[in-house]
Amino acid sequence: MDISDMRMFEAVSRHGSMNRAAQELHTVQSNVTARIRGLEEELGVTLFQRHARGVSMTPAGQRILPFAGRLTKLLADARAAAQDDGAPNGALVLGSLETTTALRLSPMLTSFAKAYPQVRLVVSTGTTRKLLDEVLAYRLEGAFVAGPVSHPDLHQQVVFEEELVLVTAPAIRTLDALTAVSDLKTIVFQIGCSYRQRLEAVLADKGIATAKPLEFGSLDAIVSCVSAGVGVTLLPKGVVTGAWQEGRISIHELAPDQAQVQTLFVRRTDAYVSSAMSAFLDLAGPKPPAAASS
User: Fold this and answer.
1) Listed residue (87, 189, 176, 110) closest to 146, CA to CA
2) Distance between CA 294 and CA 176 in Å, rounded?
3) pTM for the model
4) Domain-ending residue, one of 82, 102, 131
């Protein structure tokens, strides 16, 4: 077993396909298939179940996957350290909640890009659960997620404090009015979004029954559906203030213990901190809450 075997194993596990892994690694499928088969023979276990749609990991494959990620990241960190002369440069791959990207990151990323033009900054969005998984798997160097977070392999720092509000159609003037809505739907991001979990808790606390949630992948889609009266959602006040001022939605403030949420920046404790990451961490220090508009 060598590092190239583990790289192939990690790529196949991520894509669920020998062919797509081969394309990423700039080789042919037969080579990937042979190397994976050789790795399985060396370890004496089956790592993937083959089927018509591709492959899926066996329990043995799942057990060794974290080691593949560590080895791949360790080599990448060694290469980055050798080339890191102290001036921020190279790629910096981060993740963020879509709400945080919309509300907070534009000025921060603009300032960083102007200050460090040699850094290629890449930011992808996702739910808190997805982003944490990506950081833990070494696929993201860091991510902005909703707290609280507790994991021994993650370093975290508070960067923002947000106020969450319940968002409804304009016709809903009070939270009590929601109790009269039959088949009330929640409009949410995909499973793994911490705001979704809080919304369910807020409504349950008020004795409001809900139907199966509707899932959307973008903030604009969620706000549009709520505005049209399809359902309700829970979002940071700052990202919906504009729609509220335009009369497209109503917002309802919550008790502090339900409304206050911290946005954290998380990264692996064992990852190499490059000069680019160090510069970004300096810029991403704790910020005051966004000013509320009324």
Assistant:
1) 189
2) 22
3) 0.76
4) 82
Q: Is 39 helix (H, G, I), strand (E, B) or coil?
A: helix
Please report, for the domain that includes residue 234, its CATH number: 3.40.190.10
pLDDT at 293 over 80: no
Domain co-membership, 7 together with 128:
no
Tell me: do 150 and 202 sit in the same domain.
no
Burial class (CB in 10 A: 0-12, 13-18, 19+), 60: middle
Per-residue pLDDT reduced to its tens digit, 135-183: 998 889 999 999 999 999 999 999 999 999 999 999 998 888 888 887 8
Cα angle vertex 143, ends 244, 59, to 5°? Answer: 120
Range of the domain at 276: 87-161+261-283
Greatest alpha-carbon pair distance for the chain in Å reads: 66
Are residue 222 and residue 113 in the same domain, yes or no?
Answer: no
List, in sequence order, every beta strand (DSSP E) within the chain.
Answer: 48-51, 54-57, 90-96, 119-125, 142-146, 154-168, 187-188, 214-215, 233-236, 250-253, 260-268
Domain match, 272 and 253 both: no
> What would the two tokens of residue 30 be?
């037969």
266 in the same domain as 154: yes
Domains identified in the chain, total number = 3
Cα 123–chain centre separation: 10
Residue 291 pLDDT exceeds 80: no
- If we measure between CA atoms, which residue out of 130, 131, 134, 111 comes closest to residue 121? 111
- 259 contact partners, CB below 8 Å, separation of at least 6: 163, 164, 165, 253
